[in-house]
Amino acid sequence: MSKRFGNAQILRDVSLTVPSGSICALLGPSGSGKTTLLRVVAGLEQAEAGVGTLDSRVLFDGTNGAWIAPEHRQIGMVFQDWAIFPHLSVGKNVAFGLGRRDPGQRVGEVLEMVGLAGFGDRMPATLSGGQLQRVALARALAPRPQALLLDEPFSNLDVALRARVRADLHRLLSDADVTTVFVTHDQEEAFVLGDQVAVMRDGEILQSSSPFDLYSSPGDPWIAAFVGDVNLVPGTADGSEVGTAIGRLPTRSTGHGPVQVLVRPEDVSIAPGDDCIVTSVEFYGHDTMIECLHPAGAVLRLRVRACQVRKGDRIGVQHSGAPVVTFPAASAESESDAEPDAGRARPSRVPRESTADRQAGRALG
After folding, report:
1. How far apart are CA 194 and CA 190, in angstroms?
2. I need a labelling partner for 332 at 20 to 30 A (CA). Which of 24, 131, 260, 342 fits?
3. DSSP state of 324
4. Distance (Å, rounded) from C-alpha 233 to C-alpha 318?
């Protein structure tokens, strides 16, 4: 599908398939088109081209102009700011997602499902951030949607709360067995929650695969750097091996000539020797990230168990020996080129949520 706002091309021939009952994370930097894609699926924006289906039902078709209104798509949506009505009780907020249908026992069922049994009469102002997020989720699940969309579901939570709420949400979504797509720019969130992770950049999906495959077999150096810490080491491929400053390493594919070698920090460890100078040490408790300067001029990062290495120490390094991924040298971006683009906040090209969008929340949750 494709989508423009004025002269700006926001989505470029995006194609994504999410298996029924699975959780897909849309991962990418700000401005990559993640939220716009979610809004197109929800029906809050219309694509100029492309076809969207839910099971066998066509939601929109840019070729013939077919388009199902948001309230008839059977899709629940949790907005980034949760869009909780402050003047309504928790129970009435959840019942709002049911529209004109008789809420009956459903409100109590979904509140129990999200761990808020007995909270129906509470007002939103008396709840914590994690509880408000659960109210928004309960409202989205109340109409028994076929699919659920979540836009940056943890952005309004503090760091200490995120991990716990994230684990609870993962359990809830798995138990609900509803096809889910959520937007995030956080690699850790995408990997923890997603059965499938689709990486977006500049309106395109660059790669969509399982978290394991995405991390271990990224499609290009930019993706490799965006989904985790990397060392991109120059090398020369010779069949099934590549020669580098840290030794000859086995490769996953055969080749010849100059390449860039993907080496994850956890695949490099401290070894006897003193040829590398430690330039930085980041202690995290469970592990330590060490940056060192190799005599060949390469800057290497090592993720090792907690240790007493300090800046200025001299150490040796060795690779684990696991087969490495290589990229053609001519097309490879350096890690320093990739990281600023991945982390830099871009001006939003997506309109802010309007009153009409909030009214659409009756159907979308």
Report:
1. 5
2. 24
3. B
4. 14
Q: Please state the rounded mean pLDDT for residues 322-335.
A: 76
Task: Examine the pLDDT at 97 and tell me if it is beyond 70.
Answer: yes
320 CB-near residues (< 8 Å, 6+ apart)? 267, 268, 269
What does the pLDDT read at residue 244?
93
Q: Scan for tokens 């003193």, then name that residue.
A: 274
DSSP string, 164-194: HHHHHHHHHHHHHT-EEEEEES-HHHHHHH-
* Sheet architecture: strand order including 23-27: 75-78, 147-151, 179-184, 23-27, 196-201, 204-209
* CA 120 – CA 135 distance, rounded (Å): 10
Maximal CA-CA distance, the chain:
73
For residue 358, the SS3 value is: helix
DSSP 49: B
> 226 by DSSP, 3-state: which?
helix
Quickly tell me which residue has 């990739």 as its tokens. Answer: 338
Backbone φ and ψ for 181, nearest 5 degrees, come out as: -125, 125
Report whether 268 contacts 320 (CB < 8 A): yes
The token pair at 79 is 């907005």
- Is the confidence at residue 145, as pLDDT, over 70? yes
Report the distance separating Cα 191 and Cα 124, nearest Å.
31
Q: Which residues pair with 299 in a beta bridge?
A: 293
The CA distance from 273 to 327, in Å, is 29
The C-alpha atoms of residue 271 and residue 140 are separated, in whole angstroms, by 53
Q: Tokens for 196?
A: 């499938």
Amino acid at 131: Q
Tally Cβ neighbours within 10 Å of residue 241. Answer: 18
Is the CB of residue 276 less than 8 Å from the CB of residue 312?
Answer: no
Two tokens, residue 82: 């949760």
pLDDT at res. 172: 86
Count, residues in the chain = 365
Q: 219-235: per-residue pLDDT in tens?
A: 999 999 999 999 999 99
